[in-house]
């Protein structure tokens, strides 16, 4: 156990013995280990959390790992080419290279040509 954890454990024990709230050190509710304020806070927090869970998810994950350009993907695997390599080759970010593979995005003509030449294959139509 870390020193901080040990310290907090001792502190909570001391407060409990004195009838104080183990969270904030103020007078606890008779027979309880927490004060009114901390109790209310805990209940509110719990309600808020359960509400958040019930809310429907309306925004999809931005990053999908479905391959939208299987030709490019296959060539990369075959040749051991990473998104970093293509990023260096074309001067665009790795995130942009990922978009070519997974999000159906195409590079500009100049970079399309670079990639096609690199793989000696028509990955992107020009
Ligand atoms: Zn308290």
> Kindly state the mean pLDDT as a whole number?
88
Looking at how many chains there are and whether they match, the oligomeric state comes to single chain
Report the biggest beta sheet as strand number plus sense, adding barrel if it closes: none
Number of strands: 0
Q: How many domains, as an integer?
A: 2
**What is the gyration radius calculated from CA atoms?**
29 Å
Number of helices: 6
Task: Estimate the global geometry from the Cα principal axes.
Answer: elongated
Key traits:
single chain; 126 residues; mainly alpha; 6 helices; binds zinc ion
Explain what the structure shows:
The protein is mainly α. 57% of the residues lie in helices and 0% in strands. The radius of gyration is 29 Å and the shape is elongated. Zinc ion (ZN) binds next to α2.
